[in-house]
Every structure is written in structure tokens, then in C-alpha cells.
Design a protein that fits this description.
Ferritin-like_SF; binds 3-hydroxybutanoyl-coenzyme A; two-stranded antiparallel ribbon; mainly alpha; Ferritin-like; 335 residues; 2% strand; Ferritin; PaaA_PaaC
């Protein structure tokens, strides 16, 4: 289990609130020198408690996002237009559940219990990605989520494969491989609708793009100057690229994909800036972002209620699995 580190950093900005003792400063200097050398931190290694708490916060929110992220698309499994699309969507939603389990397991290496994290989620005390608080109104939403939401997730998660905390980095390597399938299946579904679909189906795709574009840009987090964790997280190799830089990378890549798809992006200020070598884009509605993060999005209450109901209804599965495990252990010991 993780080394019980002294709380060298107070909650908040990461600056020590009291002067460190010589020993504490030496431990911190040695830790930061290892990070600077590109070393990975394992659960048994010494770490500042602020580092541990930052990882518990981020990894648990990430895990919650994967599990809650199953709900918007799960809503369309019974209404997929073909058996092939149903099978693909089932596989994708099942993957998201698996991603959540890998990430809860990574969080547990930091000394927190999965049940504790899940209780926080159900009590509305834990964050998960704002994007999952928007409704999926048509089948085209499923394709757009794959294309834009999983596309943004890949952009944000690939750098996490080099996160300084080794269990998180290892989980991300496996997750990113599966995410590329998620994005491809979404984009492929949209290509079919745009190329072979009726005018009404093409309108459905455009409507979904209009609704999901800006919330997808919000996935990368607040602007760098409003990000209270970025400086310390980048110092400690948890965050490798800033919120704004990843957002820009996503916009630059996605504009071209939209052109191939034959959809327009709902931003009249979107245009190539030769001097910058990037696409300029319009202002993001940060009031909407903080409203949704604060629990007042279109589907926040519904998502938490669904998660809590699924947890209660699944209690028998957990009890059966635990009883089976206990029986197997007894039989192994008796053998
Ligand atoms: N939704 C909800 N809260 C968000 C957010 C978002 N999109 N972006 C930022 N926040 C919160 C942060 O959690 C933080 O609040 P807290 O202090 O209460 O935790 C606050 O806003 C300030 O933001 P910061 O930028 O300072 O926070 P971070 O340094 O943690 O950066 C992040 C935010 C980039 C999302 C980072 O946490 C991260 O990379 N997380 C891991 C990846 C992740 O969670 N990806 C999104 C969802 S997973 C997904 O889409 C899976 C796909 O398969 C469906």
C-alpha cells in the first residue's frame, strides 16, 4: 500500500503553509528530483500527501466519468438501428465499465476504498466529467459521442499514459487502445448516415454536432488561468499538457474530420490562423460549464439517480460474487 507520507503540502495551492523541517524538505527535494528525471512513482514509494490526494481526486473522478459515461449511450442499446450497431454499442458501453474498474483499482493503490469513492459519487459529493450531463436525443448522438467525446477523451488521456504515477499510467495505456475503437465506431456510424442516409438523417447528425460541440471543448477543463490544479499537477508530471493546449489540439484535429464528414461546426469564429498555425475559435460559455459542474446541468440528477438505482439493484451480484469467493477460499484452504 502507499507509504504514509507526511502532509507536506496543505490543501489547495500546493504551497507549504508551514515551513518544512530539514528532513521533510530533503524528502520533497528527492521526490521532485526523481520526477524531473522522468522516474515513475509506485504505490510503495514515498510521496507527498498532496501528490497522493491530487491523484485520488483525479483518478476517482476519471473512474466516475467512465461509469456515468455508460448511461447516455446505454440509453440507445435497445434502439440501435441494426444488430451490428447494437453489438458495437454494447461492446463500447461494456468497455467504459471496464475502464471504470481499472481506474477504481488504480485509485485503491493510493489507500482509498472503492466503496468510499462510490458512496461519494452517489451522495453527489464527487465530480465526474461535465459532458455526461447532456441528453442523447437521437441515434446520431451515439455517433457524435464516439467522434467528439471519445475523441476528446483520447486527446486528454494519451498524455496520461506518461503520468508520473505508474498504476495510473499503466491503466491509461490499456484504456487508450480501446478508446481508439470508440472514436472510430462513432465516426463510422456518422459517415454512413451522412453518405447513405436520408436528408432527415443528415439533419439529425448536424443537430447532434450542434448540441455536443461546445460541451466537448469544455471536457478539457477550465482555461489555464482558471485551473487551480494545473501548475502543481504539471510540476509533478500528473498533467503533461495544459487544458488549453489540449483543447487547441482537439479543435485543430476535429475541424478537418468535420469537413470529411460534411458537417459544419457551430462556431462562426472558427477559422485558420496562419500566424498561429492553429484554428481560432469562439468564446466558450464558462458559466454553462460551471453550472453543469456544479450539478445544474440538463441530466445531473437523472444520472446520479440512475447510478444509485443500478448500485442498489446490483447488490445481489456483489453479494453472490463475495459468497462465491469466500467459498472458493475455504475449499482451497481445506484442500
Ligand atoms: N467536468 C467536471 N469537472 C471538471 C472538468 C470537467 N470537464 N474539468 C475540470 N473540472 C474540475 C476539476 O475536477 C477541478 O475541480 P476539483 O478541484 O473539485 O477536482 C476544477 O474543475 C478545476 O479544474 P483543473 O483544470 O484545475 O483540474 P485538473 O487539473 O484535475 O484538470 C482534467 C481537469 C483535465 C479533466 C483532469 O482532471 C484530467 O485529465 N482528468 C482525467 C481524465 C478525465 O477525467 N477525462 C474526462 C472524462 S473520461 C471520458 O470521457 C471517458 C470516455 O471513454 C467516455
Amino acid at each position: 500500500m502507499y507509504t504514509q507520507a507526511m502532509d507536506l503540502m496543505p490543501k489547495g495551492d500546493g504551497k507549504p503553509s508551514v515551513p518544512l523541517s530539514a528532513t521533510e524538505q530533503q524528502l520533497l527535494d528527492r521526490f521532485e528530483a526523481r520526477i524531473d528525471d522522468g522516474a515513475f512513482v509506485e504505490p510503495k514509494d514515498w510521496m507527498p500527501d498532496h501528490y497522493r490526494r491530487t491523484l485520488v481526486r483525479q483518478i476517482s473522478q476519471h473512474a466516475h466519468s467512465e461509469i456515468v459515461g455508460m448511461l447516455p449511450e446505454g440509453n440507445w442499446i435497445t434502439r440501435a438501428p441494426t444488430l451490428k450497431r447494437k453489438a458495437i454499442l454494447l461492446a463500447k458501453v461494456q468497455d467504459e465499465g471496464g475502464h471504470g474498474l481499472y481506474l477504481y483499482a488504480a485509485a485503491e493503490t493510493l489507500g482509498v476504498s472503492r466503496d468510499e469513492l462510490i458512496d461519494q459519487l452517489h451522495a453527489g459529493k464527487a465530480k465526474y466529467s461535465s459532458i455526461f450531463n447532456y441528453p442523447t436525443l437521437s441515434w446520431a448522438d451515439v455517433g457524435v459521442i464516439g467522434w467528439l467525446v471519445d475523441g476528446a477523451a483520447i486527446m486528454n488521456q494519451v498524455p496520461l499514459c506518461r503520468c508520473s504515477y505508474a498504476p495510473y499510467a499503466r491503466a491509461m495505456i490499456r484504456i487508450c487502445r480501446e478508446e481508439s475503437f470508440h472514436q472510430r465506431q462513432g465516426y463510422d456510424a456518422l459517415l454512413v448516415m451522412m453518405r447513405d442516409g436520408t436528408p432527415r438523417q443528415r439533419d439529425m447528425v448536424q443537430d447532434a454536432v450542434n448540441r455536443w460541440w461546445w460541451p466537448s471543448l469544455m471536457m478539457f477543463g477550465p482555461p489555464d488561468e482558471a485551473s487551480n490544479h494545473s501548475e502543481q499537477s504539471m510540476r509533478w508530471g500528473i498533467k503533461r499538457i495544459s487544458n488549453d493546449d489540449l483543447r487547441q489540439k482537439f479543435v485543430d484535429a476535429t475541424v478537418q474530420q468535420a469537413k470529411v464528414l460534411g458537417v459544419s461546426l457551430p462556431d462562426p469564429e472558427l477559422r485558420w490562423n496562419e500566424a498561429r498555425g492553429h484554428f481560432d475559435f469562439g468564446p466558450i460559455d464558462w458559466d454553462e460549464f460551471w453550472r453543469v459542474v456544479g450539478g445544474d446541468g440538463p441530466c445531473n440528477r437523472e444520472r446520479l439517480a440512475d447510478r444509485a438505482q443500478a448500485w442498489d439493484e446490483g447488490a445481489w451480484v456483489r453479494e453472490a460474487a463475495l459468497a462465491h469467493a469466500a467459498k472458493s477460499t475455504t475449499q482451497r484452504k481445506a484442500a
